[in-house]
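Reminder to self: tokens first, then the designed residues, so the page reads top to bottom the way the pipeline ran.
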């Protein structure tokens, strides 16, 4: 997955944890706008989320962040 997307996921997770608490859950779509303006990136992240990490639709933000940081 692109480094720019890894950075964005970490930022979004940090913001959600700060505003909603340690147990906040996020869906895969939390990291994208409501427009499909970069389908290649969407598929890249979807593959990482579903195939590589085998995550459910909703996961804890702290879990997502730790997976992204460990998978660098």
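Designed residues (72 positions):
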């Amino acid at each position: 997955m692109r480094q720019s997307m890894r950075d964005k996921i970490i930022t979004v997770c940090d913001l959600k944890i700060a505003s909603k608490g340690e147990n906040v859950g996020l869906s895969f779509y939390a990291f994208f706008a409501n427009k499909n303006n970069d389908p290649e990136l969407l598929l890249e992240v979807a593959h990482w989320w579903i195939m590589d990490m085998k995550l459910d639709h909703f996961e804890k933000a702290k879990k997502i962040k730790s997976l992204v940081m460990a998978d660098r």
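The CA atoms of residues 37 and 63 lie 27 Å apart.
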